[in-house]
Write a sequence for this structure.
């Protein structure tokens, strides 16, 4: 047996025959699968993605090896133009070959490149050198320092992301106004019109979250130590906003509002021990709440008087504070099928318990189903299912003892959640008219099925004549299983793309499968000539701590294959945007120098 036979590599005659069989087999597959009633828009892309699926179905390892041995294109390179490239391969091994019926199903290399570029620019905006575009998640805290919007635009932000699961329309609208103002300022400074930043808005979708916890009354006396994280806290004459969850102190005063207080003001008091102390105002949250920092360690109680300018506030009582729930491996947790249930700590007779924002998500839960909390920081298995609640046993926590927090997400990958929780929720439909006013792109969160896209398309048609781009976020098991159908439906939109939302996707599919899945999504979108967004966890260490990890740099390099890279919020977000631009430049320079070096080696017979 010679080397070729031992490797299973075909002879040239066998290669011709198998290439013919592959070509016509893919043709038959496409004809059988493609519906003639299909919307004619994007027909070339629809046919090519089906040709790609046929290629994956019919291509053998032996044929791949033979193609490589003959110096023909790799399968990965022909993804955007499958049948056209196969035609050329056949012509290379069999001159004079004339296909009889492939013309209408073939999209050629140049056509595929032009089509992809057109869709990319239409959806994401920008110029060629802007890709992959950088998308930045905005935070309401940015409104306190509006210069950051200008800094982000100058650093290279091309798309601003607003997560509609947080805040409300007035906050979203204000953030967009700040972006437009920053663009106008840059245009005046540079004497050129600044390219308009696209606004991308993620619909909240059916995210299962933990409801609020019961309040507990704090002791009437509290010791605040200077230097600890707890030296920063809040003074309020109302209820502390739920999104300001803090381990720090909360002091309540008997006033209707805290009017006139400004950042850097001081609020003086004499503590229980007779020591003169003061709070420095860090932030004015609202007319009823301010954030402050203590100058020296103090002991306060209900008799403490706070002095600000010529006003005197009586410390009436410490704000009731949500209970703290800790979990560790081996503990049990009850999850109630109620959005009104207030979480509470456990005791000898009853485990800790929580409610969920989407009770319908628990309808199909069964014993032994997996439960992931807070992006997998806590995992459990269902041990019991009752009419009002389910019980789960904790089998993993990121730390030995981990704090459970309200508002954190829950994933139930085994429980057929999608059957009872549509991708478009009542809240999404309520906010959609306002979102259409300011959005250039809308993200459909937790898409499960192509019908979810059809519903969104119908609602958008009723609400606006504006051409709004749509992104399908792939973040559930069901979206992965229906990915090809989701892409085919998405091609019926005027402007459409796919987001690899790796946060929930990792929890749903498992860490071991993530790399393979994200590669598969990239290839399918390449076959469909659709833009892809590389999202979640990108430069997370950099945005939060100011220093990227080595693996984050590698992740960025891999993300350069996508059309857009999404960054989440953090104190060092501007530096993270700059870093991506620098990595893009260095990568392009290196590729150029590598090519030049190769020429030099060839020239000198190296």
């Amino acid at each position: 047996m010679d080397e070729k036979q031992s490797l299973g590599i075909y002879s040239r005659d066998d290669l011709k025959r198998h290439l013919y069989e592959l070509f016509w087999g893919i043709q038959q597959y496409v004809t059988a699968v493609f519906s003639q009633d299909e919307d004619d828009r994007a027909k070339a892309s629809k046919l090519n993605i089906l040709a790609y699926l046929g290629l994956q179905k019919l291509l053998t390892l032996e044929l791949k090896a033979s193609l490589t041995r003959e110096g023909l294109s790799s399968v990965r390179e022909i993804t955007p133009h499958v049948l056209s490239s196969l035609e050329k391969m056949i012509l290379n091994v069999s001159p004079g070959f004339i296909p009889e019926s492939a013309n209408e199903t073939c999209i050629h290399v140049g056509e595929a490149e032009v089509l992809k570029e057109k869709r990319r620019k239409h959806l994401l905006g920008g110029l060629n050198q802007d890709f992959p575009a950088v998308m930045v998640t905005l935070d309401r805290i940015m409104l306190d320092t509006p210069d950051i919007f200008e800094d982000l635009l100058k650093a290279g932000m091309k798309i601003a992301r607003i997560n509609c699961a947080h805040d409300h329309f007035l906050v979203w609208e204000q953030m967009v106004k700040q972006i437009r103002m920053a663009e106008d300022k840059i245009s005046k400074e540079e004497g050129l019109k600044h390219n308009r930043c696209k606004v991308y808005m993620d619909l909240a979708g059916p995210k299962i979250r933990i409801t609020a916890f019961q309040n507990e009354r704090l002791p009437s006396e509290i010791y605040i130590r200077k230097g600890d994280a707890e030296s920063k806290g809040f003074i309020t004459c109302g209820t502390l906003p739920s999104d300001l969850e803090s381990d720090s102190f909360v002091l309540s005063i008997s006033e209707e509002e805290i009017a006139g207080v400004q950042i850097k003001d001081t609020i003086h008091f004499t503590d229980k021990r007779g020591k003169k102390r003061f709070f420095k105002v860090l932030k004015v949250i609202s007319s009823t709440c301010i954030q402050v920092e203590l100058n020296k360690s103090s002991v306060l109680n209900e008799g403490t008087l706070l002095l600000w300018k010529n006003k005197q506030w009586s410390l009436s009582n410490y704000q009731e504070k949500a209970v703290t729930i800790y979990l560790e491996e081996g503990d049990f947790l009850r999850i109630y099928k109620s959005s009104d249930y207030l979480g509470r700590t456990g005791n000898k007779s009853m485990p800790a318990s929580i409610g969920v924002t989407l009770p319908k998500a628990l309808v199909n839960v069964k014993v032994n189903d997996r439960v992931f909390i807070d992006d997998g920081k806590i995992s459990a298995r269902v041990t019991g299912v009752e009419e009002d609640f389910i019980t789960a046993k904790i089998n993993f926590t990121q730390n030995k003892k981990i704090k459970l927090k309200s508002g954190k997400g829950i994933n139930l990958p085994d429980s057929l959640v999608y059957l009872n929780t549509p991708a478009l929720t009542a809240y999404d439909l309520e906010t959609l008219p306002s979102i259409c006013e300011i959005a250039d792109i809308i993200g459909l969160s937790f898409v499960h099925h192509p019908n979810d896209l059809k519903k969104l398309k119908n609602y958008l048609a009723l609400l606006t004549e504006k051409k709004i781009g749509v992104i399908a976020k792939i973040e559930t098991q069901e979206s992965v299983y229906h990915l090809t159908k989701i892409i085919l439906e998405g091609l019926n939109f005027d402007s459409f793309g796919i987001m690899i939302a790796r946060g929930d996707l990792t929890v749903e599919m498992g860490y071991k499968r993530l790399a393979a899945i994200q590669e598969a999504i990239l290839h399918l979108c390449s076959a469909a000539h659709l833009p892809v967004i590389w999202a979640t966890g990108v430069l997370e260490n950099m945005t939060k701590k100011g220093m990227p990890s080595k693996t984050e740099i590698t992740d960025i390099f891999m993300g350069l294959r996508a059309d857009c890279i999404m960054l989440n919020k953090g104190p060092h977000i501007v530096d993270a945007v700059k870093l991506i631009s620098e990595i893009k430049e260095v990568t392009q320079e290196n590729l150029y120098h590598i090519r030049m070096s190769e020429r030099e080696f060839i020239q000198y017979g190296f």
In short: Residues 233 and 249 are 5 Å apart (CA to CA). The chain has a mean pLDDT of 87. The first strand starts at residue 133 and ends at 137. Residues 3-107 form one domain.
